[in-house]
Write a structure and sequence with these properties.
Layout (H helix, E strand, L loop, with lengths): L4 E6 L3 E6 L8 E5 L10 H7 L4 E5 L16 H15 L4 E6 L1 H12 L4 E7 L16 H8 L1 H13 L3 H12 L7 H16 L4 H18 L1 H8 L5 E6 L9 H8 L4 E5 L6 H4 L1 H11 L27
């Protein structure tokens, strides 16, 4: 995409936004990455969306090219930053496309600032915790991070000390995706962003731990998260991978029970990152969503895909 631009805003600190282009008069799609991700993971998806929509992507504080600079990196604070970005850019109401942690951030923003959001496409959104039934083995390290963040940070630092930063990032994507074919540019960009964070005096692994802890606490809180979900009045579609090892697809049952009018799409060969694994399919679902009210929930279905990840993988 030739006309990609970088925007640097001040929303309680520096916030980087990537503008992937599209018609200036088209509806605005604002993409929100997952844990350990950045705006760089949306490049192929933005290309697949095409010029009929204007695609933007945020780097949440402590991710990509947005330094934490003392911000907590909690899901709630990220939602306030996202709302501030929409206001600062004067592009609302936007279509929010949120992945994993970014899906939770998107729902919080839609619930607290409904006039800023027209509709949502949620990719692998975390469901409120329902005991251990939805806890896959890959999720256990996330729980450990929430309980013992210092131990989790030491484990990640020890892992990074045994390999190059680029190899570390490749391993994260191998855990997240069934195939890493075509991800060289994404890996290169994420590696460069992590290195720039270190060069700037920040520790992206420590930021990862703080953000992971916040996501875990939100999901484990149950009632408060359910309240947020119940207050999202905009049309919503959910896309989940049947092979997701990070968030059990069984969580779809909870979400559809809470919001039966939300449409769900279960991609049979996809893992935790539908926008990276099947960007054309996800882009097609986005374009197909339209701007009118969504019809009643349909059976979980739809095309193509791949695999997911544990603690050190970006939910990018």
């Amino acid at each position: 995409m030739a006309d990609v631009r970088s925007l640097l805003l001040d929303v309680d600190g520096p916030v980087h936004v990537t503008d992937f282009g599209g018609s200036r008069h088209a509806p605005v799609v604002l993409c929100v990455h997952g844990l350990g991700g950045s705006s760089s993971v949306w490049r192929t998806f933005a290309d697949a969306v095409g010029p009929s929509l204007r695609v933007l992507a945020i780097d949440l504080p402590g991710h990509g090219r947005s330094p934490a600079q003392g911000r907590t990196m909690s899901v709630a604070e990220s939602a306030r930053v996202l709302e501030g970005v929409i206001d600062e850019l004067q592009v609302g109401p936007v279509v929010l496309v949120g992945h994993s942690m970014g899906a939770a951030v998107s729902m919080l923003t839609a619930a607290s600032a409904p006039s800023s959001v027209s509709r949502l496409l949620l990719l692998a959104p975390p469901a409120p915790r329902d005991g251990a039934r939805l806890m896959s083995p890959a999720l256990i390290p996330h729980v450990a991070v929430c309980l013992w963040p210092r131990v989790g940070l030491l484990a990640l630092q020890r892992r990074l000390s045994r390999q190059s930063l680029e190899d570390y990032v490749w391993d994260r994507f191998r855990l997240t995706c069934a195939s890493v074919t075509g991800l060289s540019e994404v890996v290169e960009a994420v590696t460069a962003e992590m290195q720039a964070a270190y060069d700037g005096g920040e520790d992206p692994l420590a930021g990862f731990i703080r953000a992971a802890r916040s996501v875990g606490m939100l999901v484990a809180g149950g009632r408060g998260y359910r309240d947020v979900i119940s207050r999202v009045d905009q049309p919503v579609r959910i896309v989940h991978g049947a092979l997701d090892r990070v968030l059990d697809p069984g969580g779809l049952e909870q979400l559809t029970a809470l919001r039966p009018h939300w449409r769900t799409h279960l991609l049979p060969q996809v893992g935790h990152s539908p926008h990276l694994e099947e960007p054309s399919v996800v882009a097609s679902l986005l374009r197909d969503s339209g701007t009118a009210d969504e019809p009643a929930s349909e059976p979980a279905s739809q095309p193509m895909g791949s695999v997911g990840a544990p603690l050190a993988a970006p939910s990018a």
